[in-house]
């Protein structure tokens, strides 16, 4: 028997072959998700960095808001968070006299709604990676156990057994374990990396929201004070 990997796979039992196909499909899905999520999260991080540089560059917020609307960028990522907060600020300013703490919470709440939607998109499909990473080794182990059981059952009608008779079957079965690890390890590493990146980005979003809401609260208070003096 040719001791190549492909030969072992082709000579495996039907159950072990099904396990291998399942693990191969899981590995393919995980790599597709890894590349897709990697690009999506990278774009979100880049968008945040670009916006933050523009926001703290001293540009007038009204001009920044209008610019994002004209370029149809006011719904993307952090741009959408800023736009929702600024829209709430404009609405509150039209109302006139308003408690500063209520205004702060109102602006913050409007941004958090948009932020929640953004992070739902960022975390999309990550549970699939976690599932592949946690389940694949056990699926591979099942294929291995089944293959070993089949190999030993084949010895039932043999009067004189030897290791050479079961070695090929055991080798075929162990491939299932290797494939399970091959599917699981990249999925687990990618999942942990993506979760870490999303959590770090979420912290940056929360910091920006607090800073922006405080800034808008001061502007509202300043406007109300000037109106009262006049």
Summarize the structure.
The protein has seven helices and no strands. With 230 residues, the protein is mainly alpha-helical. The longest helix is centred in the C-terminal third of the chain and has 67 residues.
* Total number of strands: 0
Main sheet overview: none
Shape, per Cα inertia axes: rod-shaped
**Average of the residue pLDDT scores:** 84
Using only C-alpha atoms, the radius of gyration works out to: 29 Å
Give the low-confidence spans.
226-230
Topology as H/E string?
A: HHHHHHH
Find the structural class using helix and strand composition.
mainly alpha
The number of helical elements comes to 7
What is the domain total for the residues?
Answer: 1
Provide the helix percentage: over 70%
Intertermini distance: 97 Å
| Portion in strands | under 5%
Can you characterise this structure?
The chain is mostly helical. It has one domain (5-229). Helix content is 85%, strand content 0%. The chain has seven helices and no strands. α2 packs parallel to α7, α4 packs parallel to α7 (163-229) and α6 (126-153) packs antiparallel against α7 (163-229). The radius of gyration is 29 Å and the shape is rod-shaped. Mean pLDDT is 84; it is low at 226-230.
Please write out the topology.
Layout: H1 5-10, H2 14-55, H3 61-70, H4 77-95, H5 100-122, H6 126-153, H7 163-229
Kindly list the characteristics that best describe this protein.
7 helices; mainly alpha; 230 residues; 85% helix
